[in-house]
Write a structure and sequence with these properties.
Blueprint: E1 4-7, E2 10-12, E3 15-17, E4 22-23, E5 26-27, E6 32-34, E7 37-40, E8 44-47, H1 55-63, E9 73-75, H2 81-84, H3 87-94, E10 99-103, H4 104-114, E11 119-123, E12 128-130, E13 135-140, E14 150-154, E15 159-163, H5 182-197, H6 201-214, E16 220-223, H7 233-245, E17 251-256, H8 262-276, E18 280-285, H9 291-299, E19 303-307, E20 310-311, E21 314-315, H10 317-329, E22 335-342, H11 348-358, E23 362-363, E24 368-371, H12 376-396
Parallel strand pairs: 8-9, 9-10, 10-11, 15-16, 17-18, 17-19, 19-22, 22-23, 22-24
Antiparallel strand pairs: 1-2, 2-7, 3-6, 4-5, 7-8, 12-13, 13-14, 14-15, 20-21
Helix pairs in contact: 1-3, 5-7, 5-9, 6-7, 8-12
Bound molecules: MU-OXO-diiron.
């Protein structure tokens, strides 16, 4: 990717990672980008870097705009190695004595990765910095999604450099939201939110309020992954607020795995009963779907219905995997329900109910448990169970 001037004197000098398909366990079917931004003013400023293996590409992109040694200071909005792994190479090229600005927590985290070899300059929340014709303001955004995360706001340009927030894992030569299909990119933004930010929704709502209270005018949001939002930046901010409220509509998901197809038959019958009642639903077979896509479906579902056969007196391991992942991301305000087939002991439904209760879901008292292979009348009971779940969804959905 060649550097692109995204506003007067401001360049995206980041790189495209076309081939990444697994980002610490999150499936990235569209690849991703590591965006980094160069501001050429009286001072030349680099905001964020890239993964270690792309550092030379970043330097080449910078060199296409200015000699890297002309960079006066570097700002690290976030320590995670997809944005900082290339810092040692970059600092070596521009001069290791140059100031490296970061949040106070960033100073600690960067030192824990790179030692004390750089001139770290911790910033206060709300601190301003003149770089010539521009003023940069720094906003701590702790736990969005690391303790060190911060935003950098360029006041005169009304540009928010938002680090991981508002990102999407999408690789493309298109650089702006107006150049890509809106539904596709919002889908990727939703997946990103569900997998990276869902557990911090209370903080996101507070931050959105803080941005409103500060009266920050935002014409462009430049995240560190994916496209830049310029057509209507409020759209992605409003989507974050909406997702953070976790007020689901008339939607359910039926998530299951199966050994000899009995739990699958139950899943499809339950989903059929839910759909007949006017609630949107998909049966999701865990071994045919990635956990990061499953959690994306969970994000705006009112009911999470989970099915597992009993294996060795316990849950099927793939179901336990998804539940562990889901529990960590802390979805809220969900109805939970459990089902499964079994051979002789049949503990899975009770175990599923306990897992869902531990996530503070409103768990249906009755689970649906069938021995060996469901017969026609059993599938009818499953359909009825689906209808009962749907009634609860309709009563509670927004
Ligand atoms: Fe894109 Fe949290 O790193």
């Amino acid at each position: 990717m060649k550097p692109v001037e995204i506003a007067r004197g401001i360049y995206n000098v980041g790189v495209i990672d076309w081939n990444i398909r697994d980002f610490h366990g999150y499936s990235t079917e569209c690849g991703t980008t590591y965006n980094a931004y160069l501001i050429v003013d009286e001072k030349v400023v680099l905001i964020d870097a890239v993964k270690k293996e792309f550092a030379d590409q970043l330097l080449a992109n910078i060199a296409a705009v200015v000699d890297p040694r002309r960079i006066d200071l570097v700002i690290s909005n976030h320590t995670e190695m997809d944005h900082s792994g290339g810092l040692p190479r970059v600092m070596h090229a521009i001069g290791e004595e140059k100031p490296l600005y970061c949040s106070k927590m960033g100073r600690k985290n960067l030192a824990q990765h790179f030692g004390e070899k750089f001139a770290y300059q911790p910033l206060e929340n709300g601190q301003e910095m003149e770089i010539g014709s521009r003023t940069l303001t720094f906003l701590e955004t702790r736990m969005l999604h690391w303790p060190d995360s911060m935003f950098t706001y360029a006041k005169e340009d009304r540009i928010l450099f938002s680090s991981d927030a508002f990102g999407q894992h999408y690789a493309g030569y298109e650089m702006f939201d107006d150049a890509v299909d809106e539904q596709m990119i919002m889908g990727q933004a939703k997946k990103y939110f569900a997998n990276i930010l869902l557990l911090y929704t209370a903080k996101i709502l507070k931050l959105a309020q803080q941005i409103t209270d500060m009266g920050l005018e935002i014409e462009m949001i430049c995240p560190d992954h994916g496209i830049i939002w310029r057509r209507d930046p409020a759209k992605i901010i409003n989507a974050y607020v909406d997702w953070s409220r976790q007020e689901a509509g008339k939607k359910a998901v039926v998530i299951y795995d199966t050994m000899w197809k009995s739990t699958r038959l139950m899943a499809e019958a339950i989903a059929g009963g839910i759909a007949e009642s006017g609630v949107s639903v998909r049966p999701i077979h865990i071994r045919s779907s990635h956990r990061s896509d499953i959690i994306t479906e969970v994000l705006d579902a009112k009911a999470v219905v989970v099915g597992s056969p009993t294996l060795n007196n316990g849950l099927f391991p793939t179901v336990a995997d998804v539940l562990t992942y889901m529990k960590g991301l802390r979805p809220k305000n969900k109805i939970g329900a459990a089902f499964g087939s079994y051979g002789w002991s049949g503990e899975s439904v009770k175990l599923l109910q306990e897992e869902l209760a531990a996530m503070k879901f409103d768990v249906m008292e009755e689970g649906m448990k069938i021995q060996y292979v469901p017969q026609a009348e059993d599938l009818e009971k499953c359909r009825e169970y689906g209808k009962t779940i749907a009634q609860k969804v309709l009563a509670q959905a927004r």
